[in-house]
Amino acid sequence: SGVRVVALPPSLSAAGSFSFWANEQPYIVLNTAGGSARSSADLAVEFGRLLLHRKSGQVGRQATQGATSFALAFLLPSTSFAATFPRPVGLGGLLGRQRVWRVSAGCMLTRAKRLERVTDWQHRTAWIEYSKRGWRNGEPEEPEDINSGVFGPVSKGVGSWDEVAFQLGLP
Which of helix, strand or coil describes residue 156? Predict the structure, then answer.
């Protein structure tokens, strides 16, 4: 069975993501307008709602906080995330970590605060800058670099396709 996930059509992008149970089947309706990093977090929050609040019927701010805590811990495990958190804290460094963690800089900043990897002042200052850049409506996503990894040397003219095949374990 599993969870059925459906994306909202673009015409309804003003609506937020939500989840519900119908006939013992869990559903998540996902707003994908905010980009992949935002969608990952929304999906984890809604999954948390389904897991944590089905029996309790809890709604409102407390339910949202519980689901958000679940999502942050699920997407950004404390030990590995804390070990890779950029120092000094900067929005540019957080954006650079999107490729690794596949979540928004805002999620990383919130998780860092909960793990006490940033001070109150650093957290507040970063959120002020975040808002000034207009990222509350969507962060810039790091573009996929098709010339990275094993293809990098070939694209720069310093490698060969034979080397790429060898690195990929191809004959």
Answer: coil
Element (H, E) at 29: strand 25-30
Low-confidence ranges of the chain (pLDDT < 50): 143-148, 150-151, 154-155
Alpha helices in 102-160 (DSSP H): 105-114, 120-132, 152-155
The model's pTM: 0.71
pLDDT in tens, 5-43: 988 887 777 778 888 888 888 999 988 887 777 888 899
User: Which residue, among 139, 147, 134, 80, has the nearest Cα to 111 in the 3D structure?
Assistant: 80
Which residues 6+ apart lie within 8 Å of 101 measured at CB? 75, 76, 81, 107, 108
Q: Write a three-state SS string for 70-81.
A: HHHHHHCCHHHH
Crossing angle between the packed helical segments 105-114 and 91-101, to the nearest 10 degrees = 100
Residue type for position 129: E
Judge contact between 94 and 109, C-beta under 8 A.
yes
CA dist 106 and 94 (Å) reads: 9
Count of residues making up the chain: 171
Residue 7 host element (H or E): strand 4-7
Reply yes or no: is the peptide bond before residue 140 cis, omega within 30 of 0.
no
- Residue 50 to residue 20: CA distance in whole angstroms: 7
